[in-house]
Amino acid sequence: MRHGESKGNLDYSAYTTTPDHQIPLTDSGQAQARDAGAKLRNLISTSSSTNSWRVYFYVSPYTRTRSTLRELGRVFTKKRIIGVREECRIREQDFGNFQVEERMRVIKQTRERFGRFFYRFPEGESAADVFDRVSSFLESLWRDIDMNRLHHDPSHDLNLIIISHGLTARVFLMKWFKWTVEQFERLNNLGNCEFQVIQLGGRWRIQLSNSSHRGENARMGT
């Protein structure tokens, strides 16, 4: 899930005066998060095989993602939430020095010419760098599940909710579905507070559905 609308989404010049990790949500972004929380709760409750479902949150440490979690978390009762973990590996891509707005605009135009995946921002990261840390996070995630480090009752349906950023979410899906660099280059960011649902059914079947109900479902399996 991507965070709600931030002041940086509305006005790019916000990055010239406020560190990226401290950019806050707008009032609209907070409302988006509450609405997304209600949608997630309803989706989970209707698709769960029992009424004993639980949720566990992973969240980027940035202000806008933590605020998104705070707002959407209000719709879940305490008994439904078994844990929250702040995870630095799902933070936003580091774009380097944001203080000079025109310089950043030129640099982003250069990235479009040379490719969005491998181009590394001066003093920052490339999407390939983000891929490496997201890959590490996914390996840890599977270990947490396999070793029951989330401490959930096996009789409960467990739902993991990851609150992150636009590019990081794209890289996550790229790693999960083993998409190529060329496929990644054709992807666009999720909208603010838009989420994708990955459902595991049977042994290998994976279903990907979209929160905006565009009918863009992808089924993968053996």
From TrEMBL:
- Name the chain's protein: Phosphoglycerate mutase-like protein AT74H
The superkingdom listed in its UniProt entry is Eukaryota
Ranges of biased composition (kind: Polar residues):
14-31
Record-linked Gene3D superfamilies: Phosphoglycerate mutase-like
InterPro entries in the record, alphabetically? His_Pase_superF_clade-1, His_PPase_superfam, PGM-Related
**Name of a matching Pfam family:** His_Phos_1
Matching CDD domains, A to Z?
Answer: HP_PGM_like
The region called Disordered is annotated at 1-31
